[in-house]
Amino acid sequence: MLFMIIVKASANSEAGHLPSPELMEAMNRYNQELKDAGVRVMAKGLHPSSNAIRLSYPETGGNPEISEGPFTDPYNTIAGFILIDVSSKDEAIQWAKKMPDPQGNGEGQVELRQVFE
After folding, report:
1. Domains, in order of start, for the chain
2. I need a surface site. Which of 52, 69, 94, 96 has the fewest CB within 10 A?
């Protein structure tokens, strides 16, 4: 079963600030643990939404409207993701719970979503 651990953005990540060296080290250890267990498929961080483009489809069959970032609500923006391949939803939850606070300072939030296969 594929699951995506979606790392939500914060005001800090949207400002383009990189995590502290301590948090980077903790995330590297977490990613290595996922690799060693054979469950990590891919993991990537994303640029802030100031580099993003959104396409909205207000009319069925119509042309999309294009908006350039930055987008105002960082908590509805994604800062990164980890794709894992596990045997159950419970296993996915256990792996997600092991992730360090991805934003640090109690600002982190992740969302766990199953991927259609």
Report:
1. 2-114 (3.30.70.1060)
2. 94
